[in-house]
Specification:
Strand 11 (173-177) and strand 12 form a beta hairpin. By secondary structure, this protein is α+β, with helices and mostly antiparallel strands. The longest helix is centred in the N-terminal third of the chain and has 26 residues, at 3-28. A 4-stranded antiparallel sheet has the order 1-2-3-4. It has a 4-stranded antiparallel sheet with strand order 5-6-10-9, with no helix packed on it. The protein has 3 helices and 12 strands. The chain folds into 2 domains: 1-33; 34-186, no CATH class.
Length: 193
């Protein structure tokens, strides 16, 4: 077999193993677990992880009411979110150019709150600078959504970054830069409550 065929067979095996695991997990959930219609539609998980005892994930899909391939971005965080039984999902759909999409979800007690932010930009953006006030500035390199992920989710490719934080914070400003550090977008000062 060629390398691409070997990779394809491995991907199919992996998908079957995940499907079996997901089916087992689905039937093991308590009776209150509900499958969100979004998760029945074509989608792609673009990031997932853990922060201070909480699991989170970020996925993309095409909204059912979206006439074009503009992405919807979903963010969820909780003690045991899975793709089939989860804590609440925050979703924003729409164009990512010229204004980026920023979606967040939080869980936990106030001074130990865990937050996940997904930042989605057009393909021309390469990195983003977040001004977090007293928590400093963060420069995040943007990742391009892989072609296969975009195809599975029925969306146009975009660039994104995901940031997880523990404790209170505020995003005071977001700047995105393209090649040669060309400023692409600047949110201006954002007020925090």
């Amino acid at each position: 077999m060629s390398i691409s065929n070997v990779q394809r067979v491995r991907a199919i095996r992996r998908a079957l193993a995940i499907a079996v695991l997901v089916a087992c997990c689905y039937f093991a959930q308590d009776a209150t677990a509900v499958v969100d219609p979004v998760l029945k539609a074509p989608h792609s998980i673009i990031r997932q992880g853990r922060i201070a005892g909480y699991r989170w994930w970020v996925l993309t899909h095409r909204g059912h009411d979206q006439p074009t391939r503009q992405p919807c971005i979903d963010v969820s965080i909780g003690h045991k979110p899975t793709r089939l039984a989860y804590d609440p999902i925050n979703t924003i759909c729409g164009a990512v150019n010229p204004v980026p999409t920023v979606v967040g979800a939080s869980a936990g007690p106030a001074n130990a709150e865990r937050t996940v932010l997904a930042l989605v930009f057009s393909l021309s953006a390469r990195h983003v600078e977040l001004n977090l006030g007293a928590r400093g500035r963060r420069i995040l390199t943007l990742t391009k959504l892989r072609r296969g992920q975009a195809r599975r989710a029925h969306v146009d490719p975009f660039r994104f970054a995901v940031l997880s934080l523990v404790g209170p914070f505020c995003v005071y400003r977001i700047k995105a830069f393209g090649l040669n550090d060309t400023l692409i977008t600047d949110s201006g000062l954002i007020g925090c409550k």
